[in-house]
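Intended use. Records like the one below are meant for learning the mapping from a protein sequence to its folded structure. Do not use them to infer anything beyond what is encoded.
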Amino acid sequence: MPASRLHRVAVLVLEGAKPLDVGIPAQVFTTRASMPYEVRVCGAAPGPVTGGDGLSYAVAHGLEALEWADVVYVPGYRHPDRDDPPRSVVDALTGAHERGARLAAISTGAFALAATGLLDGRRATTHWHYTRALADRYPRIEVDENVLFVDEGSVLTSAGAASGIDLCLHVLRGDLGVAASNHAARRLVAAPYRSGGQAQYVPRSVPQPLGERFAATREWALRRLDEPLTLESLARHAAVSPRTFSRRFVEDTGYTPMQWVMRARIDRARELLERSQRGVEQIAADVGLGTGANLRLHFHRILGTTPSEYRRTFSQGAEK
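Structure written out for the chain above:
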C-alpha cells in the first residue's frame, strides 16, 4: 500500500507510562503487508521518559507527532488522579482532535483525555481501580465502570491494560474490517471479542465502607446471605428505624441496603463458582437468590457476564 494511504498512529508516552499499555498499540498496529499502519512513539519532547514499573522509554518524536497522526493512543500512567498532564500535552491533544484525529486512551490514559474537556458530557471508562476517582474529579463525564471500552466516535477509552487489546482490535475492525481484526487477534493469541465487561475483574462488588457505622450489622448479614434479609430486619439488628438505617447506609457505602445485600450475594456466588463444584441452582440457593434463573439475571446485571462464563474464566479447578 502506498505510504500516503497508511493509517498514522501516534502512541503518546507520558511520565509513569505503563509498559503493557505502551506496547499494545505499537504491536497491534505494526506496519506489515496485512497491516497498513505507520506507528510513531512520542512524548512531550523527544528523549528519555521515565515510565512505571521500573522501565523507561527513549522516544524519537515529540508532540509534533500528534499533528501528523490519524489516531492518538494515550497509554495509562501511574498516579493519574494526582496531577494533570503538562499544558503542552493537553493543548496538543486538543489540537489533534480539532484537526480530526481520534483520541484513544488505554486504562488511566483516560485522565489525560479528561483534562482536555473532550470527555465532558460523554461516556468513558478507565481501570476499575480509578473509576470513582475519574468520576469525582471530572463530574461532567458519564463514567461507566462495567465495560471493557467505550467508543464515542472521536474519543475512545478503555479499562485496564488488557482491555487496550479489545480497544485496538475494535479500531482495527472499523478501519479494515472483521477479517483483518480476526487475523490480528490470532497473531496476538487474543480473543477477537471478549464477553462481559470489567466488573467481573473487580475483586469484590461490595464497596469498602467509609466508616465503621453498622459494621456489626454488615457482618451479621454476610453470615446470613442464604436467609431472607429485608430492610426491616437489617434496621432491627442495627437498632435504628428503617428510614434512618437506609439513609446512613447510603452515606457509608453509596448503595441502598438491599443493593448492598444483592452485591454481597453475587460476591459469595463468585467465590463458590471459583472454588467449588456446586451447580448454579445449588449456588443460587446457597446465596439466597432462590433459583438459577434469578442468579443469572442479577449476575449479568452486576457483572456483565453469566455464571458459566465467569466459572470458565476464573475457576480454580472446579468442574466447568
